[in-house]
């Protein structure tokens, strides 16, 4: 059962015995159970030891008394009451340890496992039921389609039977009609037989097309329809060409096998319709045309070099919303094309048009559904962004604010000041990141200001370098004197990040060179291409290029469309370039792209350079000293760290400050001394009373009281609503020291001017 050789070890201290047991130096030790359990629980290791036997000896103490003793009768209730008292439990716990709680780790683990198994089984059952339901629905759809096919086949068989009856009737009357046929030269029997064959062939074609259209892709459907049209009209050649979106050119798409034996025309994606001869009449006239004397036709212009020789020709356009989408033609029948051929080709074209419209509607519906799902996803992201922005900005306010205060107290050339400057830079990047998230989710307004884009581009490239592999070389050409633009910093950051990310994705498998340049450029009227929607003037040009895979013309035409992406489902939303395009247009600029397969891509963004006055404003904003004052400012914010930070900042500028982290206390103080304060700075989102409600209360007591409202983010307030409520300044957190100083001084100066007037 156990070990035969047992070695005993005597310990002077129980703690040493526990340590050796846990370390595996001994297999077990003997000690009184209650005391051992208490010591193990106090040390937090009770879950790591196991009781393997009962006490070797148990000492019980008792006093013998007579039965029915009065003293015992009085003692028993007192003892029982004591056993239920907290004092007893405290004493018991002191000597024996606290009893193990019911909700132990083991019980919780078992309960969690049972719950997980239950949920898993439930999900499997739900999935099974869902699959069963989907199978039933699919079976129902298949049954319905099968039923329709059977009905169509029945009708077809019935029609064939009726035509056979007519055929027998015609056979019986053949002899009686011979003389009339000879006199009138009608050939009715031959014509009727031929018509019957054509009708049967057309009906069979329609049935086959109905069955095949659900399994063939577009090109396979086109090829099948073209081959059948050639057979049904007894033609030798057939073709199908696509009309491009411009309705001015065609793409030479498809020929039948017989035509390909003679046709050596080089495929042309943009063959001008105006160069087409009478073979293109059906495109221009939007109706079916026949040329039974093609070579002698006076309007014949010829056809592309290498095209099959034509003797007779018939073509029909396939329309969608009154625009020609395809041109469908046959040619070189041994006899002239007649009304039966016209009917056949028109039926074929009509069925092809139905298939195209149906597939277009299905594709459009899928696109709309995908856009709806993406929109719902973006709404969810927006809701989430708004929810976290307020709290996150409060945290950043404290980080940035206290860092600025500490830097101000240190020697500028100290190592601590240098390290804290890095903390401040990181905080500012986080601040801009929140602005980007809110801007992307359409929950934050852009603030246009004169800025130097070269600094933002360098900052964006620093962030990108950490994620770009070493196989991609980054080449910069950033002019330090490229001028200023009127924009929001977040917008410039988004433009560079999106364009560089796309360039990186184009080269991540092969490596290459990512080029980024920012330079001033003067565009005259001669420099502006037809694709650029700009006026002559001075611009800042942002250029991002790569040596990646490039794009073809079809992709280039769609890259700025919302939700269009060439990436996988988990790699892109299709919104990046659409957002860039929207930003550039909102800044009165333009974006161009040059690309070809295998030769890389170059994006150029042109944003107007700001005028001289704007440059002066920018320079003044950079060089001016932070203003100060001695007025009395009341601060209220439910975050104590932010209150203390703002108080320190304002005191460093010379202001008197009364700070509160409870809105009710601040309001009571103002009610008691309404004329003691020159300015109120309040947070928006606070327990009990919002900053907007506080403002209304304050203005009701003193209408000339200036108020600055600060917010991390709130759906209840924006700059316009704040102004309408009588608020003088609207500041977004996190607050920078210079922003707070400038805002306070501007509000107080405006108040002073009003009082003078």
UniProtKB/TrEMBL annotation:
Catalytic activity, as annotated: ATP + protein L-histidine = ADP + protein N-phospho-L-histidine
Database matches in PROSITE patterns: HIS_KIN (PS50109), RESPONSE_REGULATORY (PS50110)
Organism lineage string: Bacteria, Pseudomonadati, Thermodesulfobacteriota, Desulfobulbia, Desulfobulbales
UniProt protein name: histidine kinase
Organism of derivation: Desulfocapsa sulfexigens (strain DSM 10523 / SB164P1)
Record key words, sorted: Kinase, Phosphoprotein, Transferase
Domain Histidine kinase: residue ranges: 387-611
Gene Ontology MF terms: phosphorelay sensor kinase activity
CDD domains for this protein: HisKA, REC
Residues annotated as domain Response regulatory: 632-748
E.C. numbers: 2.7.13.3
UniProt modified residues of type 4-aspartylphosphate: 683
N-terminal signal peptide: none
InterPro entries xrefs: CheY-like_superfamily, GAF, GAF-like_dom_sf, HATPase_C_sf, HATPase_dom, His_kinase_dom, HisK_dim/P_dom, HisK_dim/P_sf
